[in-house]
């Protein structure tokens, strides 16, 4: 991966998911729909800072570099704004799993800490592509706990805002219990 793409790759790779139970509704196919926002701080520190631990292959500086491992703990908020209410955390990991270094395999838990889903969580897995802002990509909801026991479904992720220190993503979870 070219040096110039190292930073964007890292940012996109770190920006892993999102959660906040801002909107809940059913779509025509009977899926419950929840919309969350993942707030990740790339740089700096503070009460809302993302905690990231990265293990990088010696010959790769890319966040999506094959074999690299990133462990993260992001805040989930009900909205895009940085002062939106906190509804949970997005805790998980990403592994550079593409030889072309254009995606990583993410495995994470959306843990709710407020609102009607406080104490419940969703389990997710899927590829996180290195792609421009606005790209929609999909990952699988493989299960859950509490109010999400036996949940299945899919999560659509779109990066909606990037600054030089933060990355904010919209997550739309479509959940069924059938
Ligand atoms: C969430 O649930 C925990 C455990 O029951 C409780 O201590 C906490 O106050 C709740 N948080 C909110 C924001 O309701
Ligand atoms: C981020 O951008 C702001 C201006 O928008 C600038 O003041 C600040 O120094 C930048 N921070 C970094 C770490 O580049």
TrEMBL record:
Residue ranges that the Swiss-Prot or TrEMBL entry lists as coiled coil? none
Major subcellular location class? secreted
Listed GO cellular component terms?
Answer: apoplast
Write down the superkingdom of origin.
Answer: Eukaryota
Family stated for the protein in its record: Belongs to the plant dirigent protein family.
Subunit relationships: Homodimer.
Q: Which PANTHER family match?
A: NUCLEOPORIN-RELATED
What is this protein's name? Answer: Dirigent protein
